[in-house]
Amino acid sequence: MSESKQDEQDGIQELSQHAADLYRSGVKLWRKEDLIDIEQQLAKACDAERFTLRRLDGSIVHIKNPMFKVMKPIWEPVAKFQEFWNLVRKTPDGPPETYHCTYLLDWVNRTVRDYEGPLGTTQLVFESSRERWNASITCEAFTTQLRRLLLRADGTAKRVTKIVRFGLGDLNIKPKDWWRIQNDEMPPDQRKLESSIIDTALIHHAMALTIADVVRSCAESGSHGVRILSQDPNYIDQTKDLLLETGIEVVGTSGAGGFAEVDEESVVLSALAQAPVQQIIADLARPVAIVKLIGDPASPRTKLMWKEYNTWNFPVISESVQAEGSLHRFVVYTRKEE
């Protein structure tokens, strides 16, 4: 190995060791104020010459904005997260000065999406999917399970003021070209409608509304209402409008701010979020309940967090709605009573 390569390797080892030391000392990888700050910066991306990121040790790094003063940018910045294992086990993404940043920027090209336009999902389609979900045996079993889990041993309801959802999927996305090609090659009786591409997202959104319905049904009379918040940086404007009509607030449009909404009086639903959701939650709060897909990367801190929760399998029923939403891969966590 050349001397320069050896120096580079030694530098990476020193940085990863320092990250591990900070983590062991209790330094949080994510803080609500940082997530709110980067969300606000990205919301005004065209006006920012540089973006400011915070490192683990509290120092600041500035990143040049290539879209500064661009009137009609085709590139859109979103938050990108470096989880625990990226920091301590391998070379993190980006230049060396950002190795200790747990959130970075990713640039998404929106040209194709804007050219193809929205799928055209209507409120009628949304409600029809929700009705099918509500009539399913899976929904009935999940409702029964969740209602039982949200009640304390003395029969009183646990206080929940918001449902916070991550990565449930855009409701107006169109299929990729490869999907269309494969679909066209299928026998006519096996071809799918283009709208089938959003079946999973529709089920996830319907499930989130069921959670809100259960929370409201368990709440004591006179209690405050329940907010439903949803973060997915892939939402297009038509989907945001559709959700708003349904009483759902879209937050964290750049993929970061929604995490700051998680607190001890929330229920979290996480499906296909492009973020280490459980690691972020472990640093921020202990929600009443967390419903999430398996496969989200764990860490020493999440391992400790789950000791504070009871774990339940999602009530899987053999029917098409389960397959469409990959519901058999969900797990339900409920915070243990003190």
Short note summarizing the structure:
The chain is 38% helix and 17% strand. With 338 residues, it is an alpha/beta fold.
- Distance separating the two termini: 56 Å
Strand order of the largest sheet: 7-6-5-8-9-11-10
Beta strands, count: 11
Tell me the overall shape. Answer: globular
Percent helix: 25-40%
Describe this structure in words.
The structure is a single chain. By secondary structure, this protein is of the alpha/beta class. The termini are far apart. The radius of gyration is 22 Å and the shape is globular. The chain contains 12 helices and 11 strands. The strands form 3 sheets. Strands 7-6-5-8-9-11-10 form a 7-stranded mixed beta sheet, with helices on one face. Strands 1-2 form a two-stranded antiparallel ribbon. Helix 5 packs across helix 8 and helix 6 runs parallel beside helix 8 (199-218).
What's the SSE blueprint?
Blueprint: H1 3-24, H2 32-43, E1 50-54, E2 60-64, E3 75-81, H3 84-88, E4 103-109, H4 111-116, H5 123-134, H6 137-149, E5 162-166, H7 177-185, H8 199-218, E6 227-231, H9 237-245, E7 249-250, E8 266-270, H10 277-284, E9 289-293, H11 300-305, E10 309-313, H12 320-325, E11 330-335
Parallel strand pairs: 5-6, 5-8, 6-7, 8-9
Antiparallel strand pairs: 1-2, 3-4, 9-11, 10-11
Helix pairs in contact: 5-8, 6-8
